Amino acid sequence: MEFDTTYIGMFMQVIVALVLGALVGLERLLAGKQAGMRTFGLVAVGACLFVMIGEAVAVQYHGVMNFDPLRVAASIVTGIGFIGAGLIIFQHELKGLTTAAALWVASAIGVAVGFELYMLATFVTFLTLFVCVGLWFLERWLARLFRGKSDA
Description:
Layout: H1 6-30, H2 37-60, H3 69-89, H4 97-114, H5 118-151
């Protein structure tokens, strides 16, 4: 098999998906959660790869068969839903909801990179980090604020 230079662009897409997913996973790791950089990075890479495969098949079989790469993206959403449900269900209390939601977003980031929407993927990565970190501090502050007023 001969090396095609178009693979370089594909490799870069996968690397971008890995970096962005791992960034979200870093926040979860620092928050002391089970799913960290490796989990989030792999989910983003996997989602990106599924989209890239879908696009390649659509181009390769154009006119031969009807194929919609967006169906691949829809299947990714379903699959990640099962992983997220597992994170939540196998706890005996409601835990893991934020990690499951962030994992779901990491898969969407991978899909965006797969479709070469780099700016959108990067923006959503930082927005997700803001939600996981910035809103965590806001929630804690509001909880202290309202608990303090109800105790008085």
